[in-house]
Specification:
The structure is a homodimer.
Chain A (H helix, E strand, L loop, with lengths): L2 H8 L3 H9 L6 E2 L5 E2 L3 H14 L4 H7 L16 H35 L20
Antiparallel strand pairs in A: 1-2
Chain B binds a DNA duplex through helix 2.
GO molecular function (chains A, B): DNA binding; DNA-binding transcription factor activity
Protein name (chains A, B): MerR family transcriptional regulator
Keywords (chains A, B): DNA-binding
Chain lengths: 136, 136
DNA sequence: CTTGACCTTCACATCAGTGTTAGCGTTCGA
DNA sequence: TCGAACGCTAACACTGATGTGAAGGTCAAG
């Protein structure tokens, strides 16, 4: 597919897709006319990149770990230097810490919401006055 | 404690602690001479902030959710407007998505590392040559 | 008085992302 | 065939956010 379709299917501005390519996050083959062509997995790949960026990973790291994440376990280790492995392990551990931190705080937030707004958010409904006084 | 001690105990540059205060993430009482004074929980609070920032949450959101995360379930809902609740719910869901994304990719990365480097990372040890040829 | 910790403020670095401009080629439908 | 929509490159600038550096001054203790 061309850039326009990828843009629509991923909800990502064309501009940004070119930017990701510039950053080495995605690849595109080129047609004779110079147009970028993307294969089907590119859709997931872009979404994956967006997710990781949103989770705080810098492009530099994403670029490094992306090749290790392909579904078919294609052998990537020929070019895996010890330093590279070390980097990946550190990033894996950092991701784990992130997950723990997020989970902890998400659960706390969730618990809070359960208290202030038990079951089925009435938020967005017709609320004329804040429940600030003594209720009931 | 003063800023220097908090800095040491959290591994956070003084400059950054002042920045967090400027952004409304932490509070400090002031001594007569203008020095900032922090209480004991500030240590955890700073670490929590660092963790959330690292996980991709912007300061603006952290500032909003932090008060809901205090261990003693102090009643915060007097000032909880419906919009605020909505924001918190959206952020909770976003955190969940982040967790899922991170977990998925962390597991894939982990699996990859298990393949290229099964059990007990020898990385960092004395590795004279990369294991690029057929092993065993 | 010197040293070190603290204060404020301005400026800067980095990074992701965006808008815009200018110039040009391609695709596709009316 | 014409024009709109789409694509390309390259560049420039700029936002918004996190994070730093350094200047210049204050405070407290040896």
């Amino acid at each position: 597919m061309r850039i326009g379709e990828l843009s629509e299917r991923t909800g990502t501005p064309r501009r940004l897709l070119r930017y990701y390519e510039e950053q080495g996050l995605i690849l595109a083959t080129r047609a004779a006319n110079g147009y970028r062509h993307y294969d089907e997995p590119s859709v997931d790949r872009v979404l994956q990149i967006r997710g990781l960026l949103d989770a705080g990973l810098p492009t530099r790291i994403i670029k490094q770990i992306l090749p290790c994440l392909d579904k078919p376990r294609i052998i990537h280790f020929p070019d895996a230097t010890p330093e590279m492995i070390g980097t990946l392990e550190r990033e894996r551990d950092r991701m784990t810490r992130r997950i723990e931190c997020l989970t902890r705080n998400r659960d706390a937030l969730s618990e809070y919401l359960d208290v202030v707004c038990p079951e089925g958010g009435p938020v967005g409904g017709t609320v004329s006055a804040p429940v600030s006084g003594p209720v009931g």
